[in-house]
Amino acid sequence: MKTTVFAFHPDLANGSRINASLAKAASEAGFEVRDVYSLYPDFKIDVAAEQAALEASDRIVLQFPIYWYQTPALLKQWFDAVLEYGWAYGSTGNALRGKEVILAASFGAALDDYQLEGRFHTTVEEVLKPIVTIQYHTGLQFLEPFITTGTLNLSDEALNEQAKEYLNVLSAE
Question: Do the Cβ atoms of 129 and 89 come closer than 8 Å?
Fold first, then answer.
């Protein structure tokens, strides 16, 4: 099974601790990791290249931080540009049908904050729902998301454990 990680962090190389650690672990374990912001710093996405990368993958991992309860801007633009009508959805759009997707999302606040009774009065699942809903148009099969919460206070030891767990998830058959 070919697994490709599409990493959407605006500064994966220098401005990220959590996503950089996860991406590095995946890359060192032999998974293809596409630093999408590095590929398209001008936001001019090569749709054909991204579609080819998706077609070559059995399992698609979308790795990103949550900013203001939303995805980074390039991920939204990537969805809009790459998941074209007639290719990803519509009467002839079946290129992604049956492919697995894992959302690997990181949240700065603690999991307790993402409860209906918590500080934000919303859950992680609710924040991710707009992405998961694309399965009904594309035929993608969303697996259990890989969630990292409390990233603002995550110790190095906890981050190393999270990276190990990430590799277990990516390697699962």
Answer: no
- pLDDT tens digits for range 98-123: 999 999 999 999 999 999 999 999 99
pLDDT in tens, 123-167: 999 999 999 999 999 999 999 999 999 999 999 999 999 999 999
Stated pTM of the model:
0.97
Neighbours of 43 (CB within 10 A): 11
| Rg of the Cα atoms in the chain | 16
Which residues are known to be catalytic? 108, 114, 121
Nearest by Cα to 102 from 65, 139, 133, 146: 146
Query: Residue 7 has which token pair?
Result: 């990493």
What is the rounded CA–CA span in Å between residue 69 and residue 126? 10
Residues 6+ apart with CB under 8 A from 106: 18, 19, 22, 64, 65, 66, 147, 148, 149, 151
